[in-house]
Amino acid sequence: MMQPAAKLTIFIGSDERRAHRRLYESVMERLSDAHVAGATVTKGSMGYGYNRRIHSTMNEITMENLPLVIEVVDEREKLEMVAIKIAEMLGKHGLVQLNRTSVVKSRTE
After folding, report:
1. What is the pLDDT of residues 71-98, one digit of tens each?
2. Contact 66, 74 (CB under 8 A)
3. Is the N or the C terminus of the chain less surrounded, counting Cβ atoms within 10 Å?
4. pTM of structure
């Protein structure tokens, strides 16, 4: 059975920090505090942001600040509230994206 949901995607650099702590750790804590269903952090092997500087695992010089993607699927209302707080937390150091999606639930649940 299909159920409406939302998907929150957060893009940040792995070396970004907030108050001497890795920014993605602060984001994950904020998501947990908001009681979202679950979140996954995926580390990219190459990427660039607004400054167009390519970060890659293929070059030791630019191996810092590799891209991280945090993905969350939950109810739209819950994610809308936490997305605004996370965008404020990130400032210019990331991107927050919220999209509509559907979740497929087993009929046997």
Report:
1. 999 999 999 999 999 999 999 889 999 9
2. no
3. C
4. 0.83
